[in-house]
Amino acid sequence: MDLSGWRVAELRDFEEFDDKNEDAGAALKYAYESLPAPPVTYGALLASAAAAAAPDDGVDRISSLPDQILRNIVSRLPAKDAVRTGMLASRWRSLWRSVPLVFTDAGLLPECIKKPTWRPSFGDAFGINNAVNSILKTHLGPFRCLQITCCYMDMDRENIKQWMQLIADKGVQELAFINRPWPLDHPLPATLFSYTSLTSLHIGAWKFPNTAALPDAAAFPHLKELFLSVITMKDRDLAFLLGRSPILETLTIIASKTDVRISLVSHSLRCLQLGLSSLGDIAVADAPRLERLLLWMTQRRRTGGNPFSRIKIGNAPNLNMLGYCHLGQHELQIGDTIIEAGIKVSPSTIIASVRTLALEVHFEVRNEVKTVPSFLKCFPNIETLHIRSMKVDKPTGNVKLKFWQEACPVECVQHVKTLVIHEFKGSKNEHAFIKFIVERALVLEKMGLVLCPESFRCSETTLHTRMRPFLKINEKRGSKNFKAIRLKFPSTATPWSFRMGVDLSCTDPFDLDSAF
Questions:
Q1: Which of 99, 101, 165, 428 yields a CA-CA distance of 20 to 30 A from 514?
Q2: Phi and psi dihedrals of 320, rounded to 5?
Q3: Where's the F-box domain (predicted)?
């Protein structure tokens, strides 16, 4: 068994997640939002059918089509509608049993998705479990997409084992399996590791089985996308899982119950995304195809002597997107050098491939702000810069425009075209940084300030007074293409999309608020 491709340094167990607390609800919410959209939607099919409506003469032309075309039609319907086609005519009666189906149990119990910690009545839970049981037993397969995310897994554990065995014979391509109401005392059924047809896998709220007992042949040879949400696992478990996924392209870990420490060696991975988790050391040792290293609402390690989580970047020649790096909790290491305030940049500490950088900064904490110039020097080709302005309980000093002018040469921001300040609070330190960017970024085109609602609960007159300093900011602008600053309030209560993060066609997943 070769695990050299992936190594997990350490994962440690901590207190159990309680599905009644807010953190648990948020974790499930993000897990549900990250599910891939089913390949078909009934509304889209109806709209398409209406656009190509046949003459209203009562003649059944569709039933006269060849079986292959009818199967193609049925395979594009949600499972419950595919089954209903058996009532149209005798020719349709058995077609649905042999076509690739799309089945999502969330459509049967939508409250499950709207309120992740909501508990259905016994009747509802029994009904949805019966529906899943029926579709798995009667449909021959394959399934293009199968999402079992709302069933009550603790109602009949033997039945769950039977489901997993049935799924193994169905040739499932996309599978989502979320445990409700997440009783983490029993493990993920080991049968899952025999699903060799999977291309996408979402696992939520499970405890990993004993991987030492799994067969050596267990593998996911076609798996490209992997989401792990609220998972209890040990160091060897993730190494086992990733070592058996030779062409994996995207890995997302949401709300890990343990500190995550990874030393990454992969020639296939393009996106590593970690969110709502505490991090130990994250080392990108050798990942020549890695394009994105995304961190959202991560926290410093909960164990060990170093209070910082170290993000180490080794060989990642195609890395073009990095963040959010929290300057108060993350310690960036490039090669053998730790990036800190006042460091002398050398060729070995420069990552020229990064075009989008996102930082979390306490602008009122002077020691953190002093680290920002060092970061900018290490990524000289940044075109898009996102700064999340963090709330400060105890400010430690002002940072004026002169600091930025002396600490940051023009080369630091010479390629910056877009700047977005998230949770902008209107402080003098924020203003000094923005003024510096306007003066020194010679190709700047767009700037957006996403206002922090708590800081701008005021009248329109007061708002104009607080923003008056920005009216003069254009007087010394370095770029002729920069015209104005756009102000807006957050447009969504969910400030991050893990689904957008792994969508490599999305050019800027940090701009969920659509600042432009």
A1: 428
A2: -125, -5
A3: 59-106
